[in-house]
Structure formats: structure tokens, C-alpha cells
Specification:
The chain has a five-stranded parallel beta sheet, covered by helices on one side. The chain has a two-stranded antiparallel sheet with strand order 6-7. Strands 8-9 form a two-stranded antiparallel sheet. The protein is 53% helix and 7% strand. The protein contains 29 helices and eleven strands. It starts with 8 loop residues before the first helix and ends with a helix.
Length: 637
């Protein structure tokens, strides 16, 4: 995956016309490494105005060799003569070596003696010429000066105009730059010269010599600027991965860090590797994964923080004015740090976020969870979906946790598409055995229905009225009525009481409020559920055969009230005490009797079965003994 071709033909043609004008000038093409300078220069060379010009390119930023700078310049300006001179030198050396070898083996190969005279002459001449060249070069002949003079004459030839390009000038060592300045003095004003590099990284800026000979500094076209290239990244990701995401963070960071086209292609290769190669598409939140890849490549110190366990502080619920004040207090925070706090923030979206499934977001880690498509297919499959409703919460099932998280983070619209199937499975699972213990998925389905029912009623009714409570519960009852129509038997009123008690958090959530504590009370709670079912519960209690039917204990629990966390097993100020219902309690069969007391956490103590745990409210007398002793005896039978 790469960014598409960025056309700079119009700007290249304009630069080419400037170069080809009658005024011979020296230019500096400014751009950082990898910013697209070479591609832009290629477009300049191919432009019409420079068709009659020859480009001489000096590529001196290479591993050092023994060839002098003058030789390199000569090779670039006169490539044919340079090759011919090199071949001639190798020819002399070769002849000398061959001749010496032949003379040495004459005694072994007699027929070579007939060529002795010619071989001696040829070998001697080659050796002498080679020796004389080396002697003159070292003593009286400055070959480099001659090569530079020839090179300058070639470049200054008006009949065959040249453009000298010195690529990566900023990357040359200081000594090489100084030598080049001597050569530039010979051709300045007579040859068109283009320096290419990043002026901010020159080794000898303090001399300002380059500034004296440069006539014009040329910037790369806007199309090659970081801001424009960042948009190309978005286009490439959309085209290759076909995923929706908010590109603003990556585009802003890319422009802020002044990254280049080469950086963009490196980034895209990692994006493709992670989302396709490591199979993370639809298994991670796109914006978070793209941001983490960016940290890995361009901010490794921050990436290492993530690996070591760094997590963003949770955003609070303060108002906008308070958040603005906090922002003003942290103006020194860098853009990358601010985005680490915001982009990687924990959220309740699908797929699981970085805070929830951290390791999967790291570069080169395979995605081990299911994709959104796979999870959606699981939800739609009756067989696959139903097995999760029967899983015990204590089981170590990664698939169960994943499907639970997926459903929990569904939007209301997404959930409503599968709501009927989910509710059927939840209720039928509860109905599959007497007093089935619901797992978190069953509870989630009940809680989700409560949320949707409440939202629909709030648009038309006053939430503080008794009519609202009754309408809410009437409408919620649809979860049982719809499923009951598909079952061979009915879902009785006491069984429904059990489902309300065990599948919905009727008490609410305990939470700190300022310097004290309180609790959030749900729309369906212990008060309105008790009020809703009390009349029916009394009818059940008075009916014949009471206590021998499944769920009969629920009619008593509904009247006595549910367990109040702050007030002990029951709240005597708001509900009857146990003594008022002893006659009915004692009618319960052993299974219902035990279920009744379990609802209030009253049971034989684990440490001592002869002691009743939670039996303080049973200290009244019954049959000439403490009622607590009587209950303990029945529970131990």
C-alpha cells in the first residue's frame, strides 16, 4: 500500500523555464530527505524547456572510495573519456602482468621463445608507461587540477548547455563541501547549478559561502508538503482497507512532524501489515490502532510507554468551562501527548478499545479476538448464540467475554436488530430449569430491555409518577409474554417475580457522592416491583396447596421486601418482619424453604453448621424455642 502518484508537472515546467532562461543562475532546491526531491527533479528534466540541455548529476553521498573528488566530477561531466581512460590504464596493467607471466614460463613452454622479442618490448613499454604516469603524478603533474579544468570547460560550453545537479549536498562531509566550493568558483555564473538538500543541515553554515553563490532558493511544490501528503495517506487507507475512520488526528500529526512521502509509504506499509497481515481489521478500533502505529514509527519513546503499561487518565464529567480551565493549565502539553490522552481513552465501543485489550494493539502482535463480522454472525446463529446463555460466569471463556463485551457496546439501533432473539434466549434459558441462576449475559439482556423501554416512555410520561412505574412494568412484561407464546407451558407470576429479583439490579449501584455515599436507583427497582406484584403475591399465598409449588417462596419475598444492603436482611420500617409470615414460611417445601432463606443470605455457617449465619432477625420465639434454631434445624435436615 502506497500513496498515489503526486503530479507536479505544472510546477516542474515553470522551474524548467526558469532554468532554461538566458540568465545563468545557481539554485538550491530545499527539501528534507525523502520529501520527493528526486522525483520532482525528474519531472523538471523531462519538461519541454530543458529538452536541449544535458543534466550532469553528482552523487557524492556514497561510501568513501579511493577515487578523488576531481575524478568523480570528471566521470560525471565526461563519462566517455573517463571510461576510455580507465580502460586504457587497465589495459597497460593487464599487458604488463601477462607479459611478465609469459616470460616467466618460457623455460617450461619452449615454443613461446619465438615471441620473446615482441613480448619483452610490449611488457617493458606497458610497465614504463605505468611507472612514468605514477611518477609524474606524484612529482610534477597535478592530475586532479587538470581533470577539474577539463570538467569546468565541459560545463561552460555554451554550444552544449549543461545543468549541474549536486544531490544530497547537506549530507556531504565538511571536507568534501569545501573542495566543491573551489570547483564552483571555476564555473559560477557560467553553468546552471542546482544544489539539492536541506539547508538547515549544512555542515558549514557559519561560513555562509553557499549563501553567497546561490541566486535563488526553491521550495518543493505544495503537493509534496506534509499537509497534502497526509491527505494522500487517508485516501490510500480508504482505498485498500475500505474502513471508515476519522483521519483528523493522523493528518494533524503528520503535518506537525513535517513528515515526507517516504515516511508516508513506510507508515502505510505498517498499516497494511497490521490490518491485513496481522488480521486486525474489524478486530481493533481503527483510529486507536492507526495512532499506535504512528507512535511506533515516529515517536518510539511514547510507544515504549504504552508497552510498559501507560494508560490514559479517565476523562471526568466536568463541564466545558472546567475542561477549558484544565486545558489552559496544560498548554505546554505536546500535541502527541494530548492525543495519547484523548485517542486512547477508554470507550464503550466495538471492537474492544486499547484499554480493554491492550496487547492486541501493539505492532507485530496478532489479533486473537473475533472480527465484528464474525461476532455478528455468531449473534445471528441460533445455535451459536444460545450456548453463551448457559455459560457459567465463573468459567474462563475468552469467547464468552468477547461476545458479552460486543453486545454491551452495541448501539441501541444495532441491538434492536437482534433484541427479539436475545430476549427469547434469555427468558427461555431462565425457564429451562427451576430457579436457574442467570449469568451476566442474561442480566445484560434484561437490563438492556429496561433501558429501551424507559427511553420510549420518557418521551411521553412524567418519570416521577405512579402511572409511569406501572406503565414501565406493564411494558417490560412483554419480555415474558412474547416468549411464553412460543413455549409449551406458561411463565407463572411467581417465576416472573424470581426473574425480576435475580436478573435486574433492583437495589441499584452503590457509589460515592461528594464526600459521602449514595446509590443510583434504576427505573425498575425493589419498591415499584414489590408494589406491582404485592396483590398477586397475596393471592398466591392464600391459594390452596401454597408452598408446594415451584417459586411459591417468591410471593413471600415480594411482600417482605428484598435485601436492603444498608439496613440488613429486611427493612423493618418499610416491610413486615419475618414473624408476621412465619405460618406461610413454614408451609414451603424443602426446596422452596431453602430458596426463601437464601434470598436473605440466611443459611448454616460454613465454619460451624450448628450456627445460623445472618439469623439476627429471627430471635423471636417459635414453638418454645428461638425461631432461628428452628430454621437452622430445617435447613440442616
Amino acid at each position: 500500500m502506497k500513496i498515489g502518484h503526486i503530479s507536479t508537472s505544472r510546477q516542474a515546467a515553470a522551474f524548467a523555464r526558469r532554468i532554461a532562461s538566458d540568465e545563468v543562475r545557481t539554485y538550491f532546491l530545499q527539501g528534507s530527505w525523502g520529501s520527493g526531491k528526486s522525483e520532482y527533479l525528474r519531472a523538471v528534466k523531462e519538461s519541454g524547456p530543458l529538452k536541449g540541455f544535458t543534466f550532469v548529476e553528482l552523487e557524492l553521498w556514497k561510501p568513501k572510495d579511493k577515487q578523488s573528488l576531481a575524478s568523480k566530477i570528471f566521470s560525471a561531466t565526461n563519462p566517455r573519456w573517463a571510461k576510455a581512460w580507465t580502460l586504457l590504464g587497465w589495459l597497460f596493467i593487464g599487458l604488463a602482468v601477462i607479459g611478465s607471466t609469459v616470460l616467466a614460463v618460457q623455460s617450461i613452454v619452449p615454443w613461446l621463445r619465438a615471441w620473446t622479442g615482441g613480448i619483452v618490448l610490449l611488457t617493458g613499454s606497458a610497465a614504463m608507461l605505468t611507472t612514468v604516469y605514477g611518477f609524474l603524478q606524484n612529482k610534477w603533474l597535478d592530475v586532479d587540477r587538470i581533470l577539474l579544468w577539463i570538467s569546468s570547460r565541459t560545463l561552460k560550453n555554451a554550444r552544449k548547455p549543461k545543468v549541474l545537479v549536486i544531490d544530497d549536498f547537506d549530507r556531504l562531509d565538511y571536507e568534501t563541501q569545501k573542495e566543491l566550493y573551489l570547483f564552483f568558483n571555476m564555473i559560477h555564473g557560467r553553468t546552471r547549478i542546482i544544489f539539492v538538500g536541506d539547508m538547515g543541515k549544512l555542515k558549514n553554515k557559519e561560513d555562509n559561502y553557499l549563501g553567497k553563490i546561490i541566486d535563488q532558493k526553491v521550495s518543493l511544490p505544495f503537493q509534496l508538503e506534509s499537509k497534502n501528503i497526509s491527505q494522500k495517506i487517508t485516501e490510500a487507507i480508504n482505498t485498500r482497507l475500505k474502513i471508515n475512520f476519522n483521519p483528523s488526528v493522523i493528518e494533524e500529526l503528520f503535518a506537525e512532524d513535517t513528515l515526507t512521502a517516504r515516511d508516508a509509504n513506510q507508515y502505510l506499509s505498517y498499516v497494511e501489515s497490521e490490518f491485513i497481515g496481522q488480521k486486525k481489521k474489524e478486530r481493533v478500533q481503527t483510529e486507536q490502532e492507526l495512532f499506535i502505529i504512528y507512535l511506533y514509527l515516529f515517536h518510539p519513546d511514547e510507544y515504549r510507554k504504552l508497552v510498559r503499561g501507560w494508560m490514559p487518565a479517565e476523562e471526568d464529567g466536568r463541564n466545558s468551562a472546567q475542561k477549558k480551565e484544565k486545558q489552559d493549565d496544560n498548554e505546554v502539553k505536546s500535541l502527541i501527548t494530548a492525543n495519547m490522552d484523548s485517542v486512547l481513552q477508554h470507550n464503550k465501543n466495538n471492537p474492544p478499545d486499547f484499554c480493554t485489550n491492550t496487547s492486541m494493539y501493539f505492532v507485530n502482535e496478532f489479533a486473537t479476538n473475533h472480527s465484528l463480522v464474525e461476532l455478528n454472525e455468531t449473534i445471528k446463529s441460533d445455535a451459536e448464540r444460545r450456548k453463551f446463555f448457559l455459560i457459567n460466569d465463573s468459567s474462563d471463556s475468552a469467547d464468552y467475554e468477547e461476545i458479552l463485551n460486543y453486545i454491551e457496546n452495541m448501539t441501541d439501533r444495532e441491538y434492536q436488530n437482534v433484541q427479539e432473539q436475545m430476549e427469547y434466549d434469555a427468558v427461555s434459558t431462565m425457564h429451562s430449569q427451576v430457579r436457574h441462576v442467570p449469568n451476566r449475559l442474561v442480566k445484560l439482556v434484561f437490563t438492556r430491555r429496561l433501558k429501551l423501554v424507559e427511553q420510549s416512555l420518557l418521551r411521553s410520561m412524567n418519570a416521577s409518577s405512579e402511572e409511569f412505574d406501572r406503565a414501565l412494568l406493564d411494558k417490560f412484561e412483554g419480555i415474558f409474554n412474547t416468549v411464553e407464546a412460543s413455549l409449551p407451558d406458561e411463565i407463572g407470576i411467581t417465576e416472573r417475580m424470581y426473574c425480576y429479583r435475580t436478573c435486574i439490579n433492583l437495589y441499584g449501584t452503590f457509589m460515592p457522592v461528594g464526600n459521602s455515599f449514595g446509590r443510583s436507583i434504576p427505573a425498575i427497582n425493589e419498591d415499584n416491583v414489590s408494589a406491582y406484584f404485592t396483590a398477586k403475591a397475596k393471592e398466591v399465598e392464600k391459594a390452596g396447596g401454597f408452598g408446594q409449588h415451584d417459586y411459591d417462596a417468591e410471593s413471600l419475598i415480594t411482600q417482605l421486601g428484598y435485601r436492603y444492603w444498608l439496613d440488613g436482611p429486611i427493612n423493618p420500617k418499610r416491610n413486615p418482619d419475618f414473624q408476621s409470615k412465619v405460618e406461610s414460611i413454614e408451609k414451603l417445601n424443602p426446596q422452596e424453604y431453602r430458596a426463601f432463606w437464601n434470598a436473605y443470605d440466611i443459611e448454616p455457617a460454613e465454619s460451624d453448621p450448628e450456627e445460623l449465619q445472618g439469623g439476627a432477625a429471627l430471635s423471636f420465639s417459635y414453638n418454645n424455642q428461638s425461631y432461628g434454631k428452628h430454621v437452622l434445624a430445617r435447613l440442616n435436615d
